[in-house]
Amino acid sequence: MTIRGQGPVVDPVDPKRCMAEVVGGSFMTFGPRPLVRCESIPTWVGREGKREDSDHRGEMSLCDECKQKCEEQCPDVEFETLREWLWRYRAPNFFRAVPGLEFVRKFLTRTGWRS
User: Model pTM?
Assistant: First the structure.
């Protein structure tokens, strides 16, 4: 999948669940604790900056807590809210695919709903 000439996206964003991996298990777990996917609902989308060695760009959905950790560990990641991301990449295709809904998109844009 390519998003507006920015190179192919490695994994599609999951708008229903945070895509960060957190340490699972409990303090009583023997050996290394496994990495499991975060169970929280995402509110942010993180996008890698442009890399010289690859044309691929990674995007992932993040909850507030995982976003804070990501900001500390990876300062070159760009963030936008999930709502902005959905409007930019999903809504235009939805409104174009369903006949008669183009006027709804224009109305929402004109009234400032999406801002």
Answer: 0.64
